[in-house]
Write the structure tokens for this entry.
Amino acid sequence: MRTSFKYIIKNPEDYKQQLLFWAQQYDDVVWLDSNHHHDNYTDYDAVLAVDAFTSIQTDYTDAFKRLDEYQQTTKDWIFGYLTYDLKNSVEDLESHNYDGLEFPELYFFQPKKLIFIKGNEVEFRYLKMVGDEVENDFNNITNGHCEERSNLAISHNPIKIKLRIHKDDYFEKVETMLAHIHRGDIYEANFCQEFYAENSVINPLEVYNRLNQISKPPFATFFKSFDNYLMSASPERYLKKIGNKIISQPIKGTARRSEDPAEDQKLAKDLRNDPKERSENIMIVDLVRNDLSHTATKGSVKVEELCKVYSFLQVHQMISTITSIISNNTHPVEVLKTTFPMGSMTGAPKISAMKIIEDLEETKRGLYSGAVGYFSPDGDFDFNVIIRSILYNETKKYISYSVGSAITSLSNPLKEYEECLVKAKAMREVLEY
């Protein structure tokens, strides 16, 4: 189905920029960049998918069934996203909170043009109908002039960021959540709040580049579908499938970084030993183990890493790795359906947590705390968790970013609020640049 050509490139970092700039001519773009973070499960340094040949767009009704049909019929690379509100497809739940973005609830497309970077090699895998465009595209990308890019310079329109939940209301809502916890309704829930700007215009590519530059996360994403944009500096993998192996890597536990090496080391150590952060992480590990068990072969769910602290440019994070094995006749979409939404963005028990979250939050989450990723032709997949991300509806001139923290019985509302501000820092800096 696809024609493949490989080329050697001199400077992969420059080439990435030229590639992204070249991609802007298309209505559908997915760019995934690992920023040189290599774990045991990294396949490519970066992937670009552009120019939809076929696509699927739907609301939550039968969303996973329709995605399963699309994935099995297409049997090709497909790229796209799942919004958090697909929870309503798998459980008896609803989403009635305010939605300023109005993105479709599920969107995937089969790209005509697919480009992979690994080391100093770039591989073009084009559908045969556009196979004769590879050489011309390679030359256009390689010779992309930096001067042209200066035309993208963002106009310094002041962007006024507002809070959907003000500080006093936030404290009140956390206290309500703590009352649920003390009553035994839930053990933990991820409570999120939105920051937004109306009547605002940004240059999405410039914003993405700045966000990526200050965060350098392993699951960076630039997504464009017509007038809807996602600029993501996500550090978190939701789910990956390699053959019959499933890998989940939830993040729970965050600490700020310090420029003083001794203090920075202490902050990482304190996070590693913090009983609240560890208990948060372990609760989500248990939830993920339970989710994976729905499709796992007997006895195959394993915790490969528990509460390991990783350091990123903006924050230290506590990450665990849970794996399972599925049988040959389990459909890839079934694994997503039985684990969605991801445990790190919901809580435990999951359904009760999602109901309480819906009651207390003020914004429909949409793509925030959903996932972006791809399926390969043989049914493997890799999806991130949409956090540390800016969302933009160009037509509505609406900009949004949300942050959250896990509320447990040990939570201090002020500390939770401060953790949200630490997580929001990079997005605010980028937009107020």
